[in-house]
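Box 3.1 A note on notation
Throughout this textbook, protein chains are presented in two layers. The first layer is the amino acid sequence; the second is a token string describing backbone geometry. Keep the layers aligned when reading.
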Amino acid sequence: MKLSVIIVSYKVPYFLQQTLHSVQQAAQHVPTQIIVVDNKSEDGSVEMVRELFPTVALIANTQNTGFATANNQGIAIATGDYILFLNPDTVVSEDTFVQCVRFMEQHPKVGGLGVKMIDGAGIFLPESKRGFPSPAVAFYKTFGLSSIFPKSRKFNHYHLGYLDKEQNHQVEVLSGAFMLMPKVVLDKIGHWDEAFFMYGEDIDLSYRVIKGGYQNYYLADTTIIHYKGESTKKGSLNYVKTFYEAMIIFAKKHFVGSKASTFILMLQFAIYLRGFLTLIASVFRKISLAGTDLLLTFGGLLVIKNVWEVIRFDDAAYYDGDPRLVYFNFPIYVLAWIFCVYLRGGYDRLARHRHLITGIGLGTLVIAAFYAFLPQELRFSRMLILLGMLWAIVAMYFTRSVQSWIKTGSIFWSKSPKINVAIVGDNEESSRILSLLHQSGILLHYRGQILPEGQPKTAAALGSLSDISNLVDTYQINEIIFCSKNIPYHAMIDSMSKLPKGINYKIVAAGSSVIIGSNSKNTAGDVYRINTNFELSNSIKQRNKRVLDIVYSIFFLLFYPILVWGIQHKLGFLSNSIAVLLGKKTWVGYFPMIQIEQLPKLPPAILTPIDRLEHCPDKAAIQRLNFFYAKDYWSGLDWQLLRQSFAKLGRQSF
């Protein structure tokens, strides 16, 4: 066998399916063994591989062993002269294996080979070629100098920004997303170091290649897609901690003396610094809009108070004698409006006018109810509440308009972005994909079909793939779906690399009902599939479900001495109420089982839809009940189950 491809997979079933399809296409030109090591995904990945790719050698781990250990499991059964370590969120070109093997055979001193990588938006990934993270290199990267001077040999040695990405180069570090090595070299220098769980292990292996007397090379002659962001969240505190701790393992292993001590000390400092900056950035992103709303709304209430004093009482200091209006009533009013806007989705990414208006309206009703229970001396003026409501609408609309203008150049924040889609494929496949789009419920504007090269042009088609740049401009296309049954992967990758930024790309494998892509290396991918319109995917309903969980838990805790007599497991009822309050559990959710269909995520549930039944149904019936709970969810479902199965609220969650 010439080549063994090892893919370590974790919870990316649809991207894995696409990767395997592209690997099979590339393997037609090189005798290839394909190995998948699944790290306990429990999302249908194992079943998918067994059903759709029966010739693939599959290792299904019963625990997440980590990237390095799983790769070593693959090496143990690999029979190829060359071994390729490949991520499950990649797409290789048809010529990738041929180009790589040919290069390795022509350059026997090369011990490791990487290729040019682009993300799901067609943008070059700088980690395609990297330098070793020496203390100086790590310092420049940690403190952002590499970003400020991307072409500098000194400041951006980490990504070797001074090297032309269109030329082949000898490099120091390869990306674990695509790393090709001769089996003899791997056996000589040693396999993956299992001290690394995730991150850093590719740097370690690249370093050992060079220490073993070989070279690492970056090959620009072939390009692959690496979606990224699918298995990890790189903006999280956990990523920062895991990445820098991996660098510490690397430093302790390969550096000695003062150099090691300095590097480790700097990395430890970087963990806290980057962690702090990540936390601050995360908090700022989440509260910046709400904080601006709070300041503007509160400031407006102060102005309204001053104006109303003059108009109504002809006294500019009428309310000044009682500071409780400003320091008690106004903060409660503002927080009520902001909280209700939050509940109605006014702070969601796709917030609309109706979310803002209904949220402020709901907040006003809450304020009115609160106002009615206040003692007479704290009922300052209902007109201030009404005027404040109108100002809150104006202020919050203004903040969103400014935010939209900064991000998109348009003040019309409530307008849904228009998705103009073109499908690249033949008549049969384009019609099938268009039908999938309609069934998925995705709102988009279909511009038309773009034909593969060699297909006779029809009146219904916009044009051919060779003219895609002009077609994108003429028809204002901002999303392209490639049919891999008709379009070679290298043609897709070539188009993605050449078209302007701002276009979203999706790919659908032959015979697949799933259309996938990723518009950024830092975000999870987009998946269009039939029956994806789950009500429980709606962020407003998710939030309302969480609020009701909290309300139920507080009620149960307050009246525990009375309610506990109707519960079978009394201490369990108390612990469950606390767990749900803390978000560790939910009162109603799914019955746990391995499912092909990915449902909206929920914490472990205490009650499930099967509690309505006298007997536990079979696996297929359970899956249907879970599916319809997510698809048709509304808050009344949870209340019905809580009322009908109240005695079971003390049992352990599933």
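The CA atoms of residues 47 and 418 lie 37 Å apart. The longest helix spans residues 257-313.
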